[in-house]
Amino acid sequence: MRPVLRTARSPRRAVPTAIAALLAVVAVGCAPQPEEDASGSASTSASGSSCAQGDLSTKTSGKLTVATDEPAYEPWFKDDDPKNGEGFESAVAYAVAKQLGYDKADVVWQSVPFNKAFAPGAKTFDFDINQVSISDERKKAVDFSSGYYDVRQAVVALKGSAAAKATGIADLRKLHLGAQVGTTSLNYIQDVVKPTRDAAAYAKNDQAKSALKNGQIDAIVVDLPTAFYITSAEVTDAKIVGQFENQGGTPEQFGLVLDKGSALTSCVTTAVDALREDGTLAKIEQEWLSDAVDAPVLK
User: How far apart are the two ends of the chain, measured CA to CA in Å?
Assistant: First the structure.
């Protein structure tokens, strides 16, 4: 993914201390600072920042390092095994890899926690795929590809509960809602629902689901495909209360996460755009997310 920028090092010279200090101040003030090499295994591909198929300037030459969280949930991945190519995001990752000129055997998976994927700092992966919504705030720390999936947020509550009877946002305001920390799901609670009680934030969706099952919260907010999976396979006595409309007229999209300033960003974006244009993304979505087609809209 992102080539690690290295600073050319000059031979050491016997420069007087005061002059050396002045030169250091000038250099820091005027020059953009290079990213540090986190892995020490940067590719030395002669293609530099080009998009030559199978010869990108990746973390490891000849390989494409793709990251996601652990565990990897359905319907995005299957059997908690990103390598099997099953599940929407696993299939998308391999489709992007193929578009970039990498065979399945050349894809190396890496486990990276959700919040760490878009945190500031150098990354150890070429791109991360983990239901990370593209936002201006996150773009300050990382690069994104163009969106590979348009997503809506949804509310899940136990059947027969007061929360399950909600028909609009006003009904949700008096409830105790929960979501995974750092997600747009939590943002929807805070910015769209604006409940009278502080939302419960959890490190993992599993913890939010447990809190729902144990009655510690009234409902959780997750993306719509995840909501369908939770209610059909994980918390079968729960139901989808409804989905939110997109805010501001711009659809929320998941994007692949890359290092800030990565030379691979344009290549990966071009690959995603090509997959959208030729219908590959739609076919993958139909195969893995076809159940997540509809739910009542909460207004």
Answer: 41
Residue 272, pLDDT above cutoff 80 = yes
Tens digits of residue pLDDT in 257-267: 999 999 999 99
Nearest to 143 by CA among 2, 9, 28: 2
DSSP annotation string for the chain: -PPPP----PPP----HHHHHHHHHHHHHHSPPPPP-SSS-----TTTTS--TT----SSTT-EEEEE-SS--TTTSSTT-GGG--SHHHHHHHHHHHHHT--GGGEEEEE--HHHHTSSS--SSSEE-SSPBP-HHHHTTEEEEEEEEEE-EEEEEETTSTGGG--SHHHHTTS-EEEETTSHHHHHIIIII--SSPPEEESSHHHHHHHHHTTSSSEEEEEHHHHHHIIIII-TTEEEEEEEPPGGGSPEEEEEEEETT-TTHHHHHHHHHHHHHTTHHHHHHHHHHTTTT--PEE-
Residue 144 and residue 126 in contact, taking contact as beta carbons nearer than 8 Å: no
Is a pLDDT exceeding 50 seen at residue 232? yes
pTM for this model (two decimals): 0.71
